[in-house]
Amino acid sequence: MSKTIYQERGIDVLDDRRILLTICPKCKHENYALNVNSGICTWCGYNAHEDAELKKRAINHKEDNE
Ligand SMILES: [Zn+2]
After folding, report:
1. What spacing in Å lies between the alpha carbon of 66 and ligand 1's midpoint?
2. How far is ligand 1, taken at its centre, from the CA of residue 18, in Å?
3. Residue 14 and which of 22, 29, 50, 65 are 20 to 30 A apart at CA?
4. How do the domains of the chain map onto residue ranges?
5. Ligand 1 mean position to 23 CA, how many Å?
6. What is residue 29's predicted lDDT score, i.e. its pLDDT?
7. End-to-end CA distance of the chain
């Protein structure tokens, strides 16, 4: 089972490098269920894996907990 290492509104970053995108931070739409696992927004094409700011927040959060 993969663990959530970082969470913010609509987004879960997992320890196996997956990012679950439930609600898109860009267009605020709820993501299509089949695309949640891909980390890509169905509606505007936002890709959580290419979001450098999100990665920075996730890494900082991880260091805070160590
Ligand atoms: Zn979007």
Report:
1. 32
2. 18
3. 29
4. 4-64
5. 8
6. 98
7. 21
